[in-house]
Structures are given as structure tokens and as C-alpha cells.
Design brief:
heterotetramer; A: 262 residues; alpha/beta; Elongation Factor Tu (Ef-tu), domain 3; Rossmann fold; 2 domains; 6 helices; 16 strands; B: 304 residues; TIM Barrel; 8-stranded parallel β-sheet; globular; binds flavin-adenine dinucleotide; binds flavin mononucleotide; binds FE2/S2 (inorganic) cluster; electron transport (chains A, D); iron (chains A, D)
């Protein structure tokens, strides 16, 4: 079940270049949400920009009824969103989509995050930590300044290994290179991936080659967000058949080996 | 006193003049978490074809100033699937379900109409004639009066359901098409389908949409849609379902005053899932505030 | 190295591809406090008719989502006044002046063209064929290929100036009109004029505009305009001046990639009086950043 | 000469129901402005609402480089404007239009304001007071709460007579009724009028009947604001000929006897 409601902004601040953290009062959504789901956010009251913007649920505090977003300013919508002040309201539609498949409690899992892809994975690691999983997070970004959520992951007792393109923090290179060295992820029950498409495609290939199950969170341009408009089609192979699935309603999380990358 | 909101589209009785626009409301259940769809006068469901269709390559949607371009490409599970899986659901609904159909040839339209004719749960057919006529080099059926009338006749003969012809705005003289399909036996008209448009990605130097061109909808097109309803109203006697950029009751009232007997809410549902119900409530409020007993008094009232 | 921005519209050389859209920039002096109009490739001035015209009743303008509807009704002091009072000013300008003309009959267009032919200071004629053909029951010249070609031929014969035919988007097949006017001797095309639209005042229950209908322009129409340029480019060889909702350089580049050799900035000037110059500067920046030596490399580049 | 520039908001507050006062840092415009002129204000950075909004110059302080607006929230544009905070910028185009014709110094003048029509008249009275004119202000509004600028007028030594529709302040009735009792305006060098169109039309008739010169400030929907688009046509009779004038460039102030009311 999902809701549409005005949520009060509790806090908003910049956490990295062009990246904002926002806390919203939305108890109904916080209560229902599972990791990997998203909210469809109205960034303007006017008719331009018109559409909502899909943003992952970054964290929730059910006792406090709080939902957090972590987003990068890309264009008009996210720019307007970043300007909201505490006390303002933001209209949310959610929680939407199908989240990550959780493993058995105590499992060993890997989490792979590229750039802003870290956003939904914090909520996931919250849950995994509650389930006493053994978690390794492979965290990549352009440079040290752009590394997101490393502190949060560490606090939740996840092992965090970092890669930056320029080597300003952790391993110098990208997350794929990093994974190719650290082979621990081969022994996991599940690898969860979120990041830029080319990176997810390469991680999916890595997982497939090692025959390790994984899940990726896909991004497609969305209209409705609720499965009605078929804008967000992604090609999914299942039992030898390729069909269109809706990123918003059938995903955004899909098994890494089923995605037909183009 | 509660004003009378009831309207008739052919033999289909609507408890109120608000429906949804095909392709923007799925098959209904997608929006049930947000509104009581049975309060609407009707729901109009996704375009259906004879065979299942995969639709167009992605991206299928791009935002434009106050509008969106879409090129879904009629992805749908086909009419047989609709009859088997959705019709039983439609039947239980305490509102009308309008099924939107699309074909490549006149025969396909006729077949679709015949197949859907005796299916319980379906209140009316809306015929999308903005599709390319495969036998005529891909020109849309809706782009000339003759082929528009042909489709209308074929559907008319194949069904006893009310036939609503959905007009394309991408024509020189929409009233001429309206008049031709009225003559050919249409019970009502939907005005308008999307405007043909496109967007270019200046970084990639390529069209944004996988299908190059797409259909423009949303508030941006409202002035064109109101004008089309106005022109069509002056030419035909059959009722019009007005649509194109309706975001709220004020927008819907523009269409009614221009000559629409009913209105459809499309793109607005993406922005506000409760848009259709809010349009209905707002129309009712307007009638009460202005002491109007019957919505029909407003239909075309701006023509003076 | 500075990229080459020079383009040719018929025999008219433009130092860069940016001009203004007729009717949105007055006769030039209105905007001189805000930008150096001589830096533009050309300025296109208000539509001119044989006799002075009073224009339409007010309101003549209404805002719509991301757009405006206007029904100025070609208010202008007439061609003789233009020749006497404005041409001497045009002559002093270090840029091209394109004079936009409009008529009620083919003869009027020919007369206008003849009168303007030998006037110093005028670089080209832009022919607005969206006007009603008085002899054909008010159907716009631009709405069918035959009458569009007739106007083109008449103007062509009456002048040695470059003839730019300005196409109406309110047609079923804009490429067919484009092709007909190319054949009839047009040197270039302006694509597009405004979309026919209207708005209704729900309090007064009457059309907002004094003239009932008006022309829709601004960002709302951009997707339709880009599509029109794309379609026309595929059909004709003569250069296209693209316009319709250009607000900034990114928008202008969409038109160029779709096939426009030059672009016109219209409604945008109302919102930002410096829009035309900023479009020019932005195009130049894009070329530099992308190491493109010559704007011509981009024209139609999205067709792949 | 007129400018287009970003002006910093110095202050903004509500002064009456739906009525806001805004102070902007705009020295170039303050320096050039004369009473009766207006600025064309960009209320949104997005493309909806698209057009600028014309607002009269309410007051200027040339030494401080400050320009003030007084505006009523009517629709989308003014609503967005009222939400601006000190420190934000507002894009202004101005000063635009032709202002009021000033009388000889020391003249006796009348000023007639209906509702928000008071906005430009404060700037005018500033100038008239500097010119040592003898000023009577006829000030009308719906009720006491909606009476605008009475304090400002009094401070500038103008005589202020008030009419409210409900009699909650001053005379009970409208400004026309008030003027019909107070006949002092008949002896003035000039009567300046700004308010709703029907009120201006009736005042113009009153002035014409008494053969007293007056000026009215007209409102028309505007596109460019600079005289280029001809949206804002008003019918003006001059030497027996009726012609279209542009409210933005030839006005907004016109001789009261020349306006063709419809
Ligand atoms: C399920 C899902 C979850 C997401 N979670 C996050 C998150 O937690 N943090 C974050 O920073 N970003 C996230 N994104 C991406 C985010 O939606 C886009 O960055 C955002 O929509 C850009 O909007 P804009 O107006 O700033 O940019 P513009 O480029 O101006 O947007 C124009 C249009 O393109 C769409 N668009 C642009 N980029 C994307 C994209 N990557 N994916 C989908 N639509 C896009 C916009 O929604 C809008 O309709 C997520 C996307 C999806 C699909
Ligand atoms: C020369 C001039 C000076 C003005 N000075 C003031 C002033 O000092 N204070 C003040 O409160 N108002 C003033 N107005 C009126 C003010 O411009 C409108 O109230 C304002 O434009 C409404 O915008 P909106 O978006 O809030 O309303 P909406 O109704 O949403 O506006 C829709 C469109 O109609 C136009 N519009 C609506 N009402 C008017 C109107 N009365 N005149 C012109 N255009 C209108 C808007 O500009 C916009 O284009 C003045 C108008 C003019 C022409
Ligand atoms: C995503 C999307 C899908 C659509 N699919 C269909 C369709 O299958 N059949 C049809 O006749 N119209 C279709 N339309 C057009 C709408 O029904 C409607 O005519 C148009 O969008 C204008 O209304 P709006 O501006 O309120 O959306 C679609 C529109 C959108 C936005
Ligand atoms: C107020 C106004 C007046 C116009 N007058 C004319 C005109 O006289 N002749 C003409 O050919 N086009 C006229 N146009 C159309 C524009 O030149 C242009 O084709 C159209 O507005 C689309 O461009 P835009 O969206 O950038 O404004 C006018 C447009 C506007 C907004
Ligand atoms: S966004 Fe509409 S179906 Fe996914
Ligand atoms: S608003 Fe454009 S001429 Fe007055």
C-alpha cells in the first residue's frame, strides 16, 4: 500500500559536492517502506517542472516517523528540492516499487555502491545489520569528497572498502577493479548493487561469471511511478523469454542476471 | 440541493462527467490506493490491440515545459488477454469501463470491436484513430476525413456498444474530421489525442525518445485542446469528451464551457494520483457556488 | 580559435544564426536598451500589411502553462509608413533586417513584395502565410500546398530579395507544404508560426481573448516546433529558420540539430530582454566546448 | 533608459489582507524612476508562470538605492513573489512606461486611490510634497483593514480623506460618493487617479463634467512591457481620432479625458 501526502521538511543540508540530505516527517511512509523502495517527489507547485522525481528511500526511523532522502542535484527538479527549508512541505507519493530480497538472518552479503547509488543501500544495510548479517560494502566514487555514507556503513558494523578514481581515498580505481581484487563477495548469499548503469552492468557480469546471485536497482525515466503508464520499461529475461517489466512497479530492484543491458 | 452531474455519452450513462484518459490510468487497479475509482463517471483503460505489443524502445518519456512527450508505442497484452483477465474485474466495478482500441487496418478495428462487443463489463469503445494506416503508407487514420469515416463505419457495424472516436489534433481541420465521423455513425468524440512532438538531446546529438517522435500531453497542450473542442462543438451534435492538459477543476470547466459533455484526466494523474477525483469535486463545488442545478447547462455555454 | 558562425539564408549572409521572431521584437529600437541588436545575425520585425491595421480587441494576450496566447491581429502602421519611417533606421543598422509581410489576397502579398523590393535597408522578406485567404472563405493560405505555393510564386516574381516562407504548424502535413513552397521558389522557410489555441474565463464563461482564438507560443510549443523542423528538413533542401519556444542556447541547439540553419527568438524576449544575445553567446560557447569549427556541422546532425 | 537586473530583497512583509510590501536593492532603477512608472517583475525562475508581472514603483529612496513595491496577491505570480525572503533576488526590468505629469511647484492637486491603486500614488505624493504642492488624497477601500498607505500620505503632509464601503473607517461609501461631497478637487491643477477600472472611469467622468484635468493609470495584460508586442493596447481619443496606444510604453498614465472606456 502506498500513500500520497504532504511531508514536513525537518532538516536539509549539503553533505558532499552537489549532494543533499533531507529529513521528512512521513510516518505512514516510514512505517510501510522496505529497503530498495522509492518515493515519487513533487519538486515544484507550478507546472514546470511538471513530473515528480523518483528518489530512493535513504533511511527511515519508524519510531520517529522520519524518512530521509539523499540526492544529487542534477537538473531543475532536484535543484528546487534542495532549496526547501525546514518547515516547508514536500508532496510525496510512496513507498513505491519492489525492494531488495532480504537474505536469511546472519548471512554473509556484499553491497556495491557507486556514487549516489549509496542512497538506497544505507536503508538496506540498516535492515541487514538488524538481521545480524556479515556485510562488506564496496564503495566507489570519483574522489574523497564524493564518497558518500562511509561513516554510516561503518557505524552499522559493515566492513567498508573504498575506491576512488583519483586515489584520494582508499584504492585508486573503480569499484569493479576493487571487487576484482577483493574476492570475498564470491562467498556471499547475495550481492546488492546500485550505481551508474555501466558500473551495474559490469558488476552484473562479474557476478554472473562467478555464478553469484545479485540484485541491481535500475533507473528509468518515470511518468506515473505506480505502474500505469508503461514509460519505465526495462527488458528482463526470464526462462529464456525477454519481456518488458516496469521499473517502478515490478522493480526498481531486479535480479542481476535477468537484466538485458543494452 | 446537490446539482445533477449525470451525463450521457451515446447510450452510456455516466453518474458524473469525469473519466480518465487512455494510457494514463493503466487498467484501474494501479490507482485504487489513492482514490475510489468507482466514484468516477467512467474509467478509460490503456489502448488495446488485436495482438499483444511490446511497445517502443526506451526512453519512452521525456519531460518538456509544462508537458511530457511519450512514445509508449501501445505496449499491451492484446485483446484476448484483456477479455480474459481484465473484463471480469471491470464487471465488478460500479462504474463504466471504456476500452480504447487501436489497429493497423480497418479490419483490425472491426475485429477488435466485434471481439469486445458481447463482453460483460465493457460500457463503451473509444477508438484511437491516431494510429498509422499500414495500407496507406503509414498516414494516420485520423488525419483525413475519409479514412476516419471508414474506421468509424467498420467499428459501428461490428458493435452495439457506444462508439467514441478519438480525434487527433495533428490535422488542418479537426472539425471536418469530426463531422465525417459523426456522419459515419460515431456516438461521441474524444478530443484530443496527443500532439506530435519531439525533443533532442544536445549532448548526444540525437532524439531523446527511442522512437524519435512522441505525443505531447499535459498542461502545455491545453490551449490547443480547448480550441479543438470549441471548433468541434460548433460542427457536430454528438457529445464530446474533452481532454488535453486538464490538471484541476478549473481546467475541466474550460473544456465543458467550450462544449465538452464529459472530460478525461490524463497526465495529471502522474503528478497528482487523486487528480480525477479532485476534478470531480471541484466541478461539483463550482456548480453549487454558482447555483447551477445541472452540469448540462454549462456544456458549450461559452459560445454565448 | 573562434568557430565560424556565419550562415546563409538564400543570398542573405548572416554573421551568426540568431534572429528575432516577428511580432515579438517590435521594429528593433524597443530592445536597444538591453542588448546590442547589431550583434544578432538579423532582426525580424513586426508583420506589415498593405494598409495600416488597428488589430484585434483586447485582451490580446493571456498566459497559459509555459506559454502565451496572443491575438494582436497584425496591428501595424502599414507598409508605406514602414518604408518612410523605419527603413531609414534599418539602413543604418549593421545587421540584416527581415521584414515580415501578411496579406488578405495573393495580390496583396505581391504588392507588398513589390513595394519593399527596392527599399534600401531591407535584407529579406518573411512571408506570413498563416493569414486567412479572404477569397477562399478565410482558410489560411498556409493550410494547403496549392495556396501556399501561389503566394510564394507571386512574392517570388515581385522581388529579388530572399523570400522566406513562414509555415503554419496547424496542418496535417507540414512537410508537404514545405515542399510545395520550395518548388514555388522560396529561398528559405521559417518554422513555425504559432499554434491555434484558446482559453476560457470560467468566471465570465466566455473566451478570454477579445478575438476568441489566438496563437500559442513559448516553451510549451517547443516539442511541436522541433518536430516540425525535423520533418521539414527531411523533405526540403532550402535552409530553415527554426523557432517556437526557444528560451536559451540549449533550446536553439535542439532546433539546429533538428535541421535549422538559423533560429529566431520570440516570446523569450518578453521574459528576458537579453534572450537573443544570450542564445547567441551560448551557441558559441557550445561550439567552443565541443571543438566544432563551424556551426554548419551541427545543422541537422541529429538525423544521424 | 531602463535596465534589467537582479535586485536583492531587503525586506518583505504583509501590510493588509493579501497585501505585501517589498523592499529591493536596485540603485540604477531607483535613480531613473519617476512616479507612475512600473517595473516588470520575474516571479519564477521556471517556465510556469512564464511572463513577468507589471508592478508600480511604490516608493524609492535614491540615497539608499532602494525601490519598494506594494502588491496584492492575485494569482500564481504574486503568490510566488510574496514568498521571497530577504537575501533572495528578484529579476526586475525597469523603470518602464511614462509617469504622471507633474504640476508647477506649489500647485493644489488631488490624488484619488482605490484599493491597491494607492501603490504608485505614494511615490507620486513623495514628489508632489517635495514640490511643496497642496495635496488632498481621496482614499477608498472595502474596509478599514484594507485601507492602504493612509499613514504615509499623512506623514507627507497630504490631507487624507477616507471612504470605506462598510463605513468601518471614514466616510461610508465609495470614493466617488466621497468626491461628490468634497468638492475641493474642482479647484486643483491636476487630479491623479489609480484604482479599479470602473472607479477610474467614474472619476474620469466626474472630472470631465467639472472640466478639471486628470490623469489615470491604466492596467492591461502585458507581454514585453517595453512597447514591442502590442498586447497592451488601450484606446485613446486625441483630436477626434481614436488610436491604439500601448499601456506599457505610451502609458500606463494617460490624460483622463482621452481614455475611451469600454
Ligand atoms: C527508482 C529510482 C531511485 C532513484 N533514487 C535516487 C536517489 O536516491 N538519489 C538521487 O540523487 N537520485 C536518484 N534517482 C535519480 C533521480 O530520479 C534523478 O536524478 C532526478 O529525477 C533528476 O531530476 P532533475 O529534475 O534534477 O533532473 P533533469 O535532468 O532536469 O530531469 C529531467 C527529467 O528526467 C528524469 N531523470 C533525469 N535523470 C534521471 C535518472 N537518473 N533516473 C530517472 N529519471 C531521471 C527526471 O525525473 C525528469 O523527469 C533515482 C531514480 C530512480 C528511477
Ligand atoms: C502598469 C501596471 C502597474 C501595476 N501595479 C500594481 C501594483 O503596484 N500592485 C499590485 O498589486 N498590482 C499592480 N498591477 C496589477 C498586477 O500586475 C497584477 O495583479 C498581477 O500581474 C497579477 O499576477 P498574478 O500572477 O498574481 O495573477 P494571475 O491572475 O495569475 O495572472 C495571470 C496573468 O494575467 C496578468 N494580470 C492579472 N491581473 C492583471 C492586472 N490587473 N493588470 C495587468 N495584468 C494582469 C498577469 O500579469 C499574468 O500575465 C499593475 C498592473 C499594471 C499593468
Ligand atoms: C503515457 C501516455 C500513454 C497514452 N496512451 C494512449 C493510448 O494507449 N491510447 C490513446 O488513445 N491515447 C493515449 N494517450 C493519450 C491520452 O489518452 C490523452 O488523449 C492525452 O494524453 C491528452 O490528455 P492529457 O494532457 O490530460 O494527458 C496516452 C497519453 C500518455 C501521456
Ligand atoms: C505577441 C506576438 C506577436 C506575433 N506577431 C507575429 C507577426 O506579426 N507575424 C508573424 O509571422 N508571426 C508573429 N508571431 C509569431 C512569432 O514570430 C513566432 O513564430 C512564434 O511566436 C513562435 O516563436 P516563440 O515561441 O519563440 O515566440 C507573433 C508572436 C507573438 C508572441
Ligand atoms: S512510471 Fe508509469 S509505469 Fe512505471
Ligand atoms: S506589453 Fe508589449 S507592447 Fe505593451
Amino acid at each position: 500500500m502506498s500513500k500520497v501526502l504532504d511531508a514536513k521538511v525537518l532538516a536539509v543540508y549539503q553533505v558532499a559536492p552537489e549532494t543533499y540530505y533531507m529529513e521528512l516527517e512521513a510516518p505512514e511512509i516510514a512505517r510501510l517502506a522496505v529497503p530498495g523502495q522509492f518515493v515519487h517527489v513533487r519538486c515544484s507547485d507550478a507546472q514546470d517542472p511538471l513530473l515528480r522525481r523518483p528518489l530512493s528511500i535513504h533511511m527511515v526511523s519508524r519510531p520517529k516517523g522520519v524518512l530521509a532522502l539523499l540526492f544529487r542535484v542534477i537538473g531543475q527538479g532536484t535543484e528546487l528540492l534542495a532549496k526547501r527549508q525546514p518547515g516547508d512541505t514536500v508532496n510525496l507519493l510512496g513507498p513505491l516499487g519492489k525492494g531488495f530480497t532480504l537474505p536469511l538472518p546472519g548471512s554473509r552479503v556484499a553491497v556495491v555502491a557507486g556514487g549516489i547509488g549509496a542512497a538506497p543501500l544505507v536503508f538496506l544495510v540498516q535492515e541487514l545489520a538488524n538481521m545480524k548479517c556479515q556485510i562488506t560494502v564496496y564503495l566507489g566514487a570519483k574522489d574523497k569528497k564524493s564518497i558518500l555514507c562511509d561513516g554510516q556503513f561503518t557505524q552499522m558494523d559493515a566492513e567498508v572498502v573504498i575506491a576512488t578514481d583519483d586515489g584520494s581515498m582508499g584504492f585508486k580505481g573503480n569499484v569493479i577493479d576493487l571487487m576484482e581484487r577483493h574476492m570475498d563477495w564470491r562467498k556471499t548469499a547475495m550481492t546488492y548493487v546500485c550505481g551508474p548503469k555501466p558500473m551495474m552492468q559490469r558488476v552484473a557480469a562479474l557476478l554472473a561469471a562467478a555464478d553469484v546471485p545479485g540484485e541491481v536497482s535500475l533507473e528509468e525515466h518515470m511518468g506515473c511511478g505506480v505502474g500505469a503508464c508503461l514509460s519505465c520499461a526495462v527488458k528482463i529475461a526470464h526462462h529464456g523469454q525477454i519481456t518488458n517489466k516496469r521499473a517502478c512497479a515490478d522493480g526498481p530492484v531486479f535480479p542481476s542476471w535477468q537484466v538485458v543491458w543494452d | 440541493m446537490k446539482p445533477n452531474l449525470q451525463v450521457e455519452i451515446g447510450t452510456m450513462l455516466m453518474a458524473n462527467p469525469v473519466t480518465t484518459a487512455s494510457g494514463t490510468f493503466g487498467f484501474g487497479p494501479e490507482y485504487t490506493p489513492y482514490l475510489d475509482i468507482e466514484r468516477l463517471g467512467a474509467i478509460t483503460v490503456k489502448g488495446t490491440t488485436l495482438e499483444p505489443r511490446e511497445g517502443n524502445p526506451t526512453p519512452r518519456l521525456v519531460e518538456t515545459p509544462s508537458g511530457i512527450l511519450n512514445s509508449i508505442g501501445l505496449q499491451n497484452p492484446g485483446v484476448d488477454y484483456l477479455i480474459e483477465h481484465y473484463a471480469p474485474y471491470f464487471r465488478q466495478l460500479k462504474t463504466n469501463v471504456i476500452v480504447n482500441i487501436a489497429g493497423n487496418t480497418v479490419e483490425e478495428y472491426a475485429n477488435l470491436a466485434a471481439k469486445l462487443n458481447s463482453v460483460p463489463g465493457i460500457a463503451a469503445l473509444e477508438v484511437n484513430i491516431s494510429c498509422p494506416n499500414v495500407k496507406k503508407g503509414g498516414l494516420a487514420f485520423g488525419s483525413d476525413p475519409v479514412s476516419a469515416a471508414e474506421v468509424t463505419k467498420a467499428v459501428r457495424q461490428a458493435t452495439t456498444l457506444p462508439v467514441i472516436i478519438k480525434l487527433s489534433p495533428n490535422v488542418t481541420d479537426i472539425a471536418a474530421i469530426a463531422s465525417a465521423v459523426e456522419e459515419a455513425g460515431a456516438d461521441a468524440l474524444s478530443v484530443i489525442n496527443t500532439l506530435l512532438g519531439m525533443a533532442i538531446d544536445i549532448r548526444k546529438r540525437k532524439p531523446v525518445l527511442g522512437n524519435i517522435m512522441g505525443g505531447l500531453s499535459g498542461p502545455a497542450v491545453k490551449p490547443v485542446a480547448v480550441r479543438a473542442v470549441w471548433q468541434v462543438y460548433q460542427r457536430v451534435k454528438i457529445p464530446i469528451i474533452g481532454m488535453g492538459g486538464i490538471m484541476n477543476a478549473a481546467d475541466a470547466l474550460e473544456f465543458i464551457l467550450a462544449g465538452a459533455t464529459a472530460v478525461a484526466v490524463g497526465t495529471a494523474s502522474f503528478i497528482n494520483p487523486r487528480a480525477a477525483i479532485e476534478v470531480l469535486e471541484g466541478i461539483e463545488r463550482y456548480l453549487v457556488e454558482n447555483n447551477i442545478d445541472d452540469i448540462k447547462e454549462l456544456v458549450g455555454a461559452a459560445h454565448g
